Amino acid sequence: MSNRLRERLVELHQRTVETPLFNPVFQLSLELSRDVESGALSLDAIQGMVAELGCEALQARALRLHHLLAPTAIADNETAFARLVATLDQDTESETFAGFSARWSRPLQHIVFTAHPTFLLTPDEADAVAERAGVGRIDADMCVAYPQRKPITLAYEHRDVLTALAHAQDARDMLVGAILDAARARFPDQWRELLPVPYRFATWVGYDMDGRTDIGWPTSLRHRLIEKAERLRRYAAALEGVTPAQQICDTLAASAAYCETLIPLFTDRLDEAGTLTQAANHLTADHPARLTSLKPVIAELRALAVDATDTDAKTLLITAAAMEADGLGMGWIHFRVNSAQLLNAIRIRIDPDNQLDMSGGAALMRLRDLLAGAQPLRSNIAALAVESTTAVRQFLAMAQILRHIDADAPIRMLIAECETPHTVLAALYFSKLFGIDDRVDISPLFETESAMEHGGRFIDALLREPDYRDYVQRRGRIAIQTGFSDAGRFVGQIPAALGIERLHSRLAELMVAHELTGVAALIFNTHGESMGRGAHPKDMENRLTYPMSVWARGKFAGAGIRLEPEVSFQGGDGFLPFRTKVLALATLTRIAEVEAQNWGPVSDPFYERTDLSLDYYRQIRHVQRDHLVSKSYARAITAFGLGLLVETGSRKSRRQSDLAADREISLRQIRAIPHNAVLQQLGYPVNVIAGAGTAAANELDAIVDLIGASPRAQQVIATVQSANVPASIKTVAAYGELFNSAFWATRPYRGNEERIADACLALSEHLVADDRLGAFRRLASRLRIDGLKLHRLLDRLPAFEAGPDREERRRSLGILHALRLALMQHMFLLAVRVPPFSRANDISRSDVLDMILSLRVDDALAQLRRAFPNSGPRVADFHLDEPSDYPEGEAQTYADIHQRYINPIDRSYRLILEIGVSIANHFGAHG
Question: What is the value of pTM for the model shown?
Answer without folding.
Answer: 0.95
